[in-house]
Amino acid sequence: MELTISIVTGFMILGALYAIHAKDLLSSVIACAIVGYSLVICFLLLKAPDLAIVQIVVDTITLIIMVAVVINSSREESYSKLDTQGYVSAITGILIIVILLYFFIVSIQTLDILGKSSLRMAKYYIEGAAQKTGSANLVTGVVFDFRGYDTMGEAIVLVTAVLGVLTILRLKGKK
Amino acid sequence: MTIIVKKTTQLIAGMVFMYGIYVIVHGHLTPGGGFAGGVIIAGSLILVTLAYGGDFLKLVKEETRTTIVESLATILVITIAVSGLLFGTKIFFNNFLPKGIVGHLVSAGVLPLYNIFVGTEVAASIFIIFLSLIIFKEESPK
Amino acid sequence: MIAYVMCFILFLVGLYGVITRRNLVKIAVSLSIMEISTFLFFALIGFIDGGVAPIVDPADPARVYVDPLPQALVLTAIVIGLATTAMLMTIIIRLYRKYGTFDIREIKNLRG
C-alpha cells in the first residue's frame, strides 16, 4: 500500500514540476488539473470514497474557471533571462526548501508507520457513532453532528466568497 | 456551440441533475452528502449554460434569482441549527428529531434536512461565481 | 514513512513555484498544488491497515473502520479551497483587464 501511494505521488511531483516550468499557460493549467485527478486515485486507495467524489467535481470546476481566465489572453510566459532579482529569489527558495525538508524529517520520527494509527480519538468516534447520530455514513455523522460548527463556518465562508466575486466583477452601477 | 454539443447536452443534463439529487438525499446511507451533491447539481447547470450560450438564457435575471435562492438556503441552515436550542435540551446544534433504525431512508434526525439545504446553498454559490464570469466577459467593452 | 516525505516534497515544489515565478497564473497554480498536498497528508494520517470505508453495516458489528475524523476535516477544506481559488482568479482577470499583462514585475513598476 505504501509503495503504491509513493509511486502515484511520484507522478504527481513530475506533473507539478511540468506545470511550473511550462511555456504555454494553457498547458500549465491542464497539468494542475491532472495533479488533482491523481489525488482522486490516492483517495480511493486510502478508502475514502466521500473525498474522491468531492475532489473530482471540484477539480473539474476549478479547471473551467482557470481556462476562462487564460483562454482570451496572450498565452505565453513572456520573459526568459535571469537578472539579479531572479537569482536572489531562486537562492532564497532553495535555502528555504532545504531547511524545511531537514526539519520535517526530524519531526516525523514520532509518527507511527503508515497503517498503525496513533490517534486516540478514532476509537471513541467509531464506537458509538452509529447509535448516537443514527446515520450509517460515519463521515456525514461527524461533519453535521459532532462537528457542526465547522460546517456552519464553511457555509458562511462560501457566502462571503460569492459576495467578494460579485463586488469585484461589477462593471455597471445601479441606474 | 455546434449541434453535436447541443444534442448531447439535451440527453445528458437531466440525468446529471437527478444523480445530484440522489447523492444529496442518500447522504446518510452511502458516500456523498450535501457538498458532493451540491457541486454535481452546479455542474449540470454549468453544462446547460455553456452549451446554449449567453443570450439564449437571459443571464442577468438568472443571476438575481440565484442569489435569492442562496441567501434563503443559508438562512434555513442557521434556523434549523438554532431551533435545536428551543426544542429538546438547551444545546446549540442539537439533533432533536427521532433517530430511526440505522440504514433506513427516514432516519438520523435532522441530518437529511441539513444535507438538502447545504447542498442547495453550495450549488447556488458555484453557479453564481460562474455566471458573474460570463456576464463580465459579455459586458466589458471590446 | 516514505509516503509522508513524498507528500511533503510535493508541498515544497508548490512553495518553490510561489517564490520564484513571475507570472500570476503560475502563482495561482502553485498555490493549488500546495493545497492538494495538504489534503493528501491528512488522508494519510487517518489510514488504518485492513480497514474499510467508514459506512456502518448493521449486520457485521466487528469490522475495522478507517478513521472518519480527518476525512471530515478534508471534506470542508476542499470546498473552501475552491472558493479561495475562484476569488484569486477573479482578481487576476481584473488585473489583466487594467494593465494588459500577467507579469508582476511590470505591474509593480506602473505605479498610479
Please, could you describe this protein's structure?
The complex is a heterotrimer of chains A (175), B (142) and C (112). By secondary structure, chain A is mainly α. Chain A has 7 helices and no strands. Chain A is extended. The relative contact order of chain A is 0.06. Chain B is mainly alpha-helical and 142 residues long. Chain B has one domain. Chain B has 4 helices and no strands. Chain B is flat and about 55 Å long. The relative contact order of chain C is 0.13. Chains in contact: A-B, A-C, B-C. At the B-C interface, helix 4 of B face helix 3 of C.
> How many structural domains does the protein architecture of chain A include?
2
| Strand composition percent of chain A | under 5%
| Unreliable sequence segments of chain C | none
Radius of gyration of chain A: 22 Å
Report the end-to-end length of chain A measured between terminal Cα atoms.
62 Å
How is the biggest beta sheet of chain C arranged? none
Average per-residue pLDDT of chain C, rounded, comes to 89
How widely separated are the two ends of chain C? 52 Å
**Would you tell me the structural class of the helices and strands of chain C?**
mainly alpha
| Order of SSEs of chain C | HHHH
SS strand fraction of chain C = under 5%
Which regions of chain A are unreliable across 5 or more consecutive residues at pLDDT < 50? none
**Regarding quaternary structure, how should these chains be classified?**
heterotrimer
**In the residues of chain C, how many domains can be counted?**
1
Q: Please report the number of helical segments of chain A.
A: 7
Number of strands of chain A: 0
Number of strands of chain C: 0
CATH architectural name of chain C: Orthogonal Bundle
Based on secondary structure, the structural category of chain A is: mainly alpha
> What do we call the CATH topology of chain C?
Helix Hairpins
Give the topology, please.
The complex is a heterotrimer of chains A (175), B (142) and C (112).
Chain A: H1 2-21, H2 25-45, H3 49-70, H4 84-107, H5 121-133, H6 138-146, H7 148-168
Helix pairs in contact in A: 1-2, 2-3, 5-6, 6-7
Chain B: H1 3-25, H2 34-52, H3 59-86, H4 111-139
Helix pairs in contact in B: 1-2, 2-4, 3-4
Chain C: H1 2-20, H2 24-45, H3 68-99, H4 104-109
Helix pairs in contact in C: 1-2, 2-3
